[in-house]
Specification:
- The chain is globular and about 35 Å long.
- The protein is built from no helices and 7 strands.
- With 106 residues, the protein is mainly beta.
- Strand 2 and strand 3 form a beta hairpin.
- The strands form 2 sheets. A 4-stranded antiparallel β-sheet has the order 2-3-4-5, with no helix packed on it. Strands 1-7-6 form a 3-stranded antiparallel β-sheet, with no helix packed on it.
- The mean pLDDT is 93.
């Protein structure tokens, strides 16, 4: 993963201020679980004043999470990767330990 940087996360709902590609953002990650046992992490990207830019992006592996938002010109990609099984979706227990969120400037 050349030129990729891990965004430090942990297995709790969280909000963090971060600078990506020289632009300040506020990232919010929320774990959502339904009654049928399906679950996923959702990512919101806000500007530095906490105004929403994109909300509800599911953390899935194997894809640029921002692909469908290219018109917003973020200038970077975000993707998830799991250590053991590369296609494994991050769980509540493993986000930040064996499942990771990466930032990369193409």
């Amino acid at each position: 993963m050349a030129n990729a940087f891990e965004i430090p996360l942990s297995s709790v709902n969280q909000t963090l201020a971060i600078i990506l590609n020289n632009v300040p953002y506020v990232l919010r990650l929320i774990f959502c679980q339904t009654t049928d046992s399906s679950a996923c992490w959702l990512l919101d990207i806000n500007d530095q004043n906490d105004n929403p830019i994109v909300c509800g992006i599911p953390l899935v592996t194997g894809a640029d999470l921002l692909e469908q938002y290219k018109y917003l010109n973020f200038g970077f990609i975000l993707y998830c990767f799991s250590d053991s099984v590369s296609s494994a979706i991050p769980t509540f227990a493993n986000l930040g330990t064996t499942s990771h969120l990466y930032f990369q400037v193409p």
